[in-house]
Amino acid sequence: MHKRVRMSVAAAGLVAALALTGCGSSDSDDAGKGKASATPAEAGGDGGSASGSIDGAWSGVTDGKPIALSVSGKTAAVVADGHVCTGEVTDHGKPMLSLKCADGNTDRTMGSIESNDGTKLVVSWDAGAKDTLTKTEPGKLPKGLPTGLPTGIPAP
Predict the structure, then answer these.
(1) Residue 30 phi/psi, 5° resolution?
(2) Are 100 and 109 in contact (CB under 8 A)?
(3) With contact defined as beta carbons under 8 Å apart, do 54 and 46 qualify?
(4) 32 lies in a domain?
(5) Is residue 142 situated within a structural domain?
(6) What gap in Å lies between CA 34 and CA 88, rounded to an integer?
(7) What is the CATH number of the domain that holds 119?
């Protein structure tokens, strides 16, 4: 159990780091034209609130399980319930997260930004989940991570 939590936290950090640095992207400057902005106001919809950009790292807990979302420009990644999903921010009348999971899971592949005040982000997923996420401060671990992890476990 503790190993799975540690692995989930490590995977969330890795996905967040990759998404925020743009690693793995070979898009040219013109490749993103015509796609939605990561800011709800710029995307033409208010996403429930036009007061904050969705760029950055977000974390929360849904149904007792940690969720991590990272958005950088038009690139997005989520780690939830042992699944890693990546994709982009698109515009379908309002900002949406259009993702594909590496393992084929579809729980969080199409998400609608329900509200965003710059510090709290609510994403409703087509498969039924609804995540309330808090913006994570750069250089700090997200709040609500499990504590009391065992000691003496060798690093991976």
Answers:
(1) -90, -10
(2) yes
(3) no
(4) no
(5) no
(6) 13
(7) 2.40.128.50
Q: Across the strands, what pairs with 58? A: 69, 135
- 87 CA to centre of own chain: 10
Average pLDDT over residues 123-139: 92
Closest CA to 79 of 63, 62, 67, 70: 67
Please, are residues 102 and 118 in contact by the beta-carbon 8 Å criterion? Answer: no
> How many structural domains does the chain have?
1
Q: Which pLDDT tens digit goes with each residue over 67-113?
A: 999 999 999 999 999 999 999 998 877 889 999 999 999 999 999 99
Q: Report the distance separating Cα 140 and Cα 136, nearest Å.
A: 7
Q: 68: which 2 tokens?
A: 């991590």
Backbone angles phi, psi at 11, to 5 degrees: -65, -40
The answer to whether 87 and 95 are in contact (CB under 8 A) is no
In a domain, 83, yes or no: yes
**pLDDT-derived band at 156, boundaries 50, 70, 90:** low
- Burial pattern 20-51, b for ≥16 Cβ within 10 A else e, equals beeeeeeeeeeeeeebbbbbbbebebebbbee
